[in-house]
Amino acid sequence: MSSRIIGIIQARMGSTRLPGKVMREVAGKSLIAHQIDRLRRSRHLTGLCVATSDLAGDDALANHVAGLGIAVFRGSEQDVLDRFYRAALAQKADVAVRFTGDCPLIDPALVDELINLYRIADPPLAYAAIDVSRYPRGLDAEVTGIAALRAAWTEARMDFEREHVMPFLWRRPDRFRLAWLSDPAIEAPWRWCVDTEQDLILVRHLLETLLPANPAFGWRDAERAMRAHPDWALINRDVVQKTLPPT
């Protein structure tokens, strides 16, 4: 029996720096709809689910996603690990691939590379992620099996481990076998996630430029657009990425 590999997109309306960002419209669609459209092209994902909070403020998001034909799971706003784990159980996932809802340029081919890295590893991996120190921020994805996820859900106690889902795993390389999809030849220092108005302006430039010519564009197409318009990198150059505590 083949594994059920479920992509779970964490999303909510209550972002502190850009409230409602996942529902902002660009090129005729919400940002979350762009992300879903792109992830639907993955060859290895069995299904998709959006995990949002059970707060009334996320009703519109839940209804919007359901209208796109995507499963919705609603749970704790603050304990995102609990929400994510329960979403994986609800979808009967053997493997869960974590995305955040602020990445409308996610590349399904790169996601498939990550899943392949996880699937073919011998000995098996507990966790794998795209290396965003090489790839642009906004192509982020993490993958783990349900057993490792259950261990994190059961044992994680620190607030940031509950909020960010995966740190319990990657902070313990002595216990969990880890890997990163990386390439030392790549130097793509751009920020394509949407956390501020400046991020949104850049992503709008990219989507409105690339979609008309090729709706299935990949991250390399976006890279070429960035190099053709060097001024675009200045738009969100000063945005500071939120950081997690060091290992």
CATH superfamily, called what?
Spore Coat Polysaccharide Biosynthesis Protein SpsA, Chain A
Largest sheet: 7 strands, mixed
Q: Distance between termini? A: 37 Å
Average pLDDT for all residues: 95
Strand percent estimate: 15-25%
H and E order: EEEHEHEHEHEEHHHEHH
Treating each run of at least 4 consecutive H or I residues as one helix, how many helices? 9
The count of strands amounts to 9
Task: State the strand order across the main sheet.
Answer: 5-4-1-6-8-7-9
CATH class (first level) name: Alpha Beta
Shape: globular
Number of domains: 1
CATH architecture: Alpha-Beta Complex
The CATH topology turns out to be: Spore Coat Polysaccharide Biosynthesis Protein SpsA, Chain A
Keywords, separated by commas or semicolons:
alpha/beta, 247 residues, globular, two-stranded antiparallel ribbon, Spore Coat Polysaccharide Biosynthesis Protein SpsA, Chain A, 7-stranded mixed beta sheet
How would you explain this protein's 3D organization?
The protein has helices at residues 31-39, 59-67, 80-90, 108-120, 146-155, 159-164, 167-170, 197-210, 219-228; strands at residues 5-10, 25-26, 29-30, 47-53, 71-75, 95-100, 127-130, 142-145, 178-181. The model has no long low-confidence stretch (mean pLDDT 95). The protein has a single domain (5-192), classed as Spore Coat Polysaccharide Biosynthesis Protein SpsA, Chain A (Alpha-Beta Complex). The protein is 35% helix and 16% strand. It comes from Niveispirillum lacus. This is Spore coat protein. InterPro entries: Cytidylyl_trans, Nucleotide-diphossugar_trans. Pfam families: CTP_transf_3 (PF02348).
